[in-house]
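Hello Y.,

Per our agreement to keep a running log of every chain we model this quarter, I'm adding this entry. I've kept the format consistent with earlier entries: sequence first, then predicted structure.
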Amino acid sequence: MTTPTPDPMGTGEHLAAPPVEDERSLGEIFSDVANDLSMLIKQEMELAKTEMKAEAKKAGKGAGLLGGAGLAGYMVLLFLSLTAVFALDEGMPLWLAALIVTAVWAVIAAVLAVTGRSAIRQSNPQLPKTQQTLKEDAAWARAQKN
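Predicted structure for the entry above:
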């Protein structure tokens, strides 16, 4: 395969470079291919690690914010529950009011647990860039084999 090179005379035309013959032995070619594949695999692993670190950083920040929101929400629900117990205490014994509020929270917890478990089962974390480059690498490797 020839590569065009710029014309040194400045006429704007491109001259074809002379073809380069490969004088390597078959063993050297296989060695080079093995080295290239090894380097390619290492690069893919580095890409995957870099991509995972970036995604983990984003997820960590979001998790921290959600944790703070969860704590605030917990406090709101705690005091709302106490308000409900005291409101129900106006028409029934205190122990029964507390039991009713506890039962309502037990039902809510069960529904959230089932929904959360279902969402986790459906999740499928993917690394799109890594997957794409792996596909390209596989195509390149197949082309080298032919």
